[in-house]
Amino acid sequence: MLLFTLACDQSTELVTPANGSFPSPVLLRSQPDDLLLLNPAFSRGMGINNSGALAGSTRNENGDVVAFKLTNHDLWLSDEIVAPNGMPEARFSINDRGHVAAHKLVPGGIVPIVWKDGEAQELPLLQGYQFGEVFDINASGQMAGEALNGNWIIPTEMRAILYSNDGDVVDLGTLGGAKAYAGGINDQGHVVGGAENALLQMHAYVYKDGVMEDIGTLGGTVSNANAINNCGQIVGRSLLANGAIRGFLYSDGIMMDLGTLGGAASVAFDINDKGEVVGFSRIPNGQARAFLYKDGVMTDLGALGGIDSRAISINNRGDIIGHYTLSDNSVHAFLYKDGVMMPL
Prior knowledge:
This protein is mostly beta strands and 344 residues long. It has two domains: 54-211, TolB, C-terminal domain (Neuraminidase, 6 Propeller); 217-338, no CATH class. It is built from no helices and 28 strands. Strands 1-2-3-4 form a four-stranded antiparallel beta sheet, with no helix packed on it. The protein is globular, with a radius of gyration of 18 Å. The two termini are 34 Å apart.
């Protein structure tokens, strides 16, 4: 099991911001009431950077769903409206510069956007496509996402895209089929996601040096990758041969089933440079629980009295952000730090 839990080699060369500096670390809230979202009853926690800044979506004073960035010192809300909180497919990310990447609503769909120092920069669409969104942003500002046509929730066409530091949008291709998306990017610019093969089966891939490589499945016909760390370790989900869904960790050419918390399925969303994985698993009663997978053990993080929880992002300190659902079906963001889950 050590193969999958070792931290990155310290000699790994990383891409750093052009100015060569990162923001000073911020102190995360030590008490739940230090700083709250304006409307915590409608929020999803989705991204956390190595300085501890948090990102996700919430409702503003007008009831609109907007992006947020939260630190111990400040709460920022976007002027732009984002997808409703009932859309768990929507994702937000934040890099170590504090830039937040996601999407904004436009008539009929969504378009990719990045907020830098609170200022919105709408990103160009892939030529020939109506809509798009960004799922991940790395330290230097490269972004990975998807271009869409037709219904943006269930698109008729979908392509994996990479936004370079020069502002170019690049179609990453497929594994021989028609559709693909890019779900994660590390600081070397290596991209992971899902792409159709010639049999029109969606498979997890890693894209580096201009080549898209199929990393396989756990025995089933479908897999997709959600994140890649700076060691090149990849996490996502795959079907087993019997059709069950399992979170996986892919390292050194081997895809490993992470198991579950006693239920039927699991999904891995993120991995840090220590090899610590977060996601959610079903428990025996069928409810979902946020988990941390560390040193070969999957741990239930709890649900703050709710019926459902999902861990979405983890930083290199081991701080985790996600969201939980109460019995009234309201969704709330949480921060998990030092063994304690706190509502935001």
